[in-house]
Design a protein that fits this description.
With 352 residues, the protein is an alpha/beta fold. The protein has 13 helices and 13 strands. α6 links the parallel β8 and β9. The two termini are 33 Å apart.
């Protein structure tokens, strides 16, 4: 990490977390964030459900909820970015304070509640962008809506033709009842409606499904079966957790979803179970607690084709992108893998 970046993180750390986040976004929008000069190693190129990525490391949803800094973020070294979550209508989200840094644990708790500008505003920003790169959108329902399935469809109708993929978020812990949509019947209905809508679009984005890390083994098998039956293009594993295992910060009692280092092993276990349950036939995107190339490599060996980070940037800065990719490339080379694809699920095959 460069001295100027370390100083910047130190300054941001003195602000309330949500304000620090807004400042970071303004820095990106102003074009003041660093541009990644390094070209990724050819070894890191991956194909994610037919989408060619220069490297497997993406930016998770939540950082750029409203698509305000797509261009600068695409220049920061990510293989792809995901904006959102976006709902049909604008909504303010939950009352503040709603974001908490757990510095002792290198973690964050948030209970934002899908605060965003709404699908129409975000679609306008997506249609105005000129930068090349892979962009996806995380979609969700409005809290007070009477038909959440219709909400997923409305956002996809507005924005789906402008992105490479759309992630159906049925796993945020911050909208009451949302995780109940992971049950077989409602999940199958949502997938069917979303896939039907996708097929009507001129530009057909890939459809991913984002799951919670707090599901049981039986639930994982059932969700995998539903995803396979619905021809979902990928599964994102995982969202934030409501569990607090291993967390030492006094802020652990705050309600909301926990992300960061304490989530790493839990999310990787779910990822591994999904890979087994799907027989490796659905590409998986590993998210949760990635701070190093070793963390990234562990998720790939557990079954991830691609990866996403967010909380790691809070504690490691944007230079973490290049560091993680460089370490990952070295680990792949060390173990004799010529591509990321060759390493996907390697621990499953070896029985680890």
């Amino acid at each position: 990490m460069r001295l100027i970046e370390r100083a910047g993180l130190s300054v941001l750390g003195r602000f309330e977390p949500e304000l620090a986040h807004r400042i970071s976004l303004r820095v990106f929008r102003a074009g003041l964030a660093p541009v990644s000069p390094a070209q990724p190693s050819p070894r890191l190129a991956v194909n994610l459900s037919g989408i060619d990525l220069p490297n497997p490391l993406g930016l998770a949803a939540g950082f750029d909820k409203n698509g305000e800094a797509i261009g600068p973020l695409l220049k920061a070294g990510f293989g792809f970015i995901e904006i959102g979550g976006v709902t049909p209508l604008p909504q303010p989200g939950n009352p503040r304070p709603r974001v908490f840094r757990l510095k002792e644990d290198e973690a964050v708790i948030n209970r934002l509640g899908f605060n965003n500008d709404g699908a129409i505003a975000v679609a306008g920003r997506l249609s105005a962008r000129t930068e090349c790169g892979v962009v996806g959108i995380n979609i969700g329902p409005n809290r007070e809506s009477s038909d959440w399935t219709a909400d997923f469809v409305r956002v996809l109708d507005a924005c789906g033709g402008l992105v490479n993929f759309a992630t159906v978020n049925v796993s945020s812990p911050n909208t009451r009842g949302l995780r109940n949509l992971q049950a077989t019947e409602p999940l199958a209905g949502i997938i069917d409606a979303v896939m039907e809508t996708r097929d009507r679009l001129a530009n057909k984005p890939r459809i991913f499904l984002k799951l919670a890390p707090d599901v049981s083994g039986d639930d994982i098998a059932r969700i995998a079966e539903t995803a396979l039956a619905g021809n979902v293009d990928g599964i994102v594993a995982t969202n934030t957790t409501i569990k607090r295992h291993g967390v030492t910060s006094p802020l652990a009692a705050e309600t909301g979803g926990l992300s960061g280092r304490p989530l790493r092993d839990r999310s990787t276990r779910v990822l591994s179970q999904l890979h087994k349950a799907t027989g490796g036939t659905i590409p998986l995107i590993g998210v949760g607690g990635i701070f190093s190339g070793a963390d990234a490599y562990a998720k790939i060996r557990a079954g991830a084709t691609a990866l996403q980070i967010y909380t790691g940037l809070v504690y490691r800065g944007l230079s973490a992108v290049g560091s993680i990719l460089g370490e990952l490339d070295a680990l792949l080379e060390r173990d004799g893998f010529e591509t990321v694809a060759q390493a996907v699920g390697a621990d499953q095959e070896s029985g680890n």
